[in-house]
Amino acid sequence: MEMHARKSRAILLIVAVALATGALVTALGISHIAARQVDADLAASTVNSVTVVPRPVESATGMTFPDDAEERARSLDLVAEVGRRLDISGSASATVTRDVLGEGDPVSVTVAGATSGYVPAVGGTLSGDQAWLLDTDEDIVCVGPAAAEALGIPVTANPTGLSLRIDGKLYDVVGFVTSGDVNLDSVVFVPYSHALAVVGSDDEASLRVLTHPGGGVPVAHTIRSVIRPDAPERLRASSVVDVSDLRAGVTTQMDRLAAGIGALLLVLTILLIANAMIVSVMSRTAEIGVRRALGASRSAVASLFLIEGGAVGFLGGLTGSALAVVSLLAVSLVHEWSAVMNPVVIGLGPLVGVVAGLVSSLYPAFRAAGIEPALAVRSD
């Protein structure tokens, strides 16, 4: 009967330690996964586009952007796409008609010059494989869907034979544009060189840079010197908010929260094991007295309880880590997070269990070692 009670007590103690250490490991794991998820969300929300425009400078002459501005910008490793745009509408007259004879009614659309990299840089797409013609002096256009509809141009995968007129000059349609971060539906793009020839200067031009994730801040800081190393003051780059400090702060706060929860659970675990071990010492007083009477030393008796506490802690911690893994997978599945298991955190279960078992067994072990054999045997 006594053996059955001891077995039941040991199993319940292991379960209690498993729940405590499992909750500890789960709290640390959720903190780690949530911090990574928040970090990923912040990184994804970070602005990854930079706009560079001319800055008015007294006594400045010539064009602001060099002819190879795109190539210079692409020399930065973090740059994914880059292109320039210069609107003709608003700066000069641009009458667009569909009739190839130039006698149709003009249509209200935006006419702009662009290099081939501009549309991808704003997150849009160019159909067909002739977008590179925007970097030439050819009489070609790329048309947005709303502009195409207004002009009666069918949006097709093969625009061969389609054309329109701008100020009476015939332009062949080589592709169609879809919008991205910027609405391009009503835009008719001509080669950038054509717009520059019509407007006469690039004072109203802009260069759009799309960076790889996390590259907005460093690119914004260096792009002016890369494009115009001789006169970076002639350019102004859009400011990009650096959220690295915010991301680090979120991670730190999550770690502190998990550490606080872990410390509380660890203390409760130690108290739980200590209480159970004291009860065990009291119920085994006669057994301890017999061991002492048969020659067992005080250290041997103390070691017995320390080993029992460590074993219970290890088994409970191992079970707790297994429960924590299942819990973390379930939480990640419910919240649609990426389940990232940190081996160090998972391995904390058995380690914390052993430490808690040994620490909580110190007092019961010393108490058991101090029992006098004669009194212990008589107490039974």
From TrEMBL:
<feature type="transmembrane region" description="Helical">
    <location>
        <begin position="345"/>
        <end position="366"/>
    </location>
</feature>
<feature type="transmembrane region" description="Helical">
    <location>
        <begin position="257"/>
        <end position="279"/>
    </location>
</feature>
<keyword id="KW-1133">Transmembrane helix</keyword>
<keyword id="KW-1003">Cell membrane</keyword>
<dbReference type="GO" id="GO:0022857">
    <property type="term" value="F:transmembrane transporter activity"/>
</dbReference>
<comment type="similarity">
    <text>Belongs to the ABC-4 integral membrane protein family.</text>
</comment>
<keyword id="KW-0812">Transmembrane</keyword>
<keyword id="KW-0472">Membrane</keyword>
<dbReference type="GO" id="GO:0005886">
    <property type="term" value="C:plasma membrane"/>
</dbReference>
<protein>
    <recommendedName>
        <fullName>ABC3 transporter permease C-terminal domain-containing protein</fullName>
    </recommendedName>
</protein>
<feature type="domain" description="ABC3 transporter permease C-terminal">
    <location>
        <begin position="261"/>
        <end position="373"/>
    </location>
</feature>
<dbReference type="InterPro" id="IPR003838">
    <property type="entry name" value="ABC3_permease_C"/>
</dbReference>
<dbReference type="InterPro" id="IPR050250">
    <property type="entry name" value="Macrolide_Exporter_MacB"/>
</dbReference>
<dbReference type="Pfam" id="PF02687">
    <property type="entry name" value="FtsX"/>
</dbReference>
<feature type="transmembrane region" description="Helical">
    <location>
        <begin position="300"/>
        <end position="333"/>
    </location>
</feature>
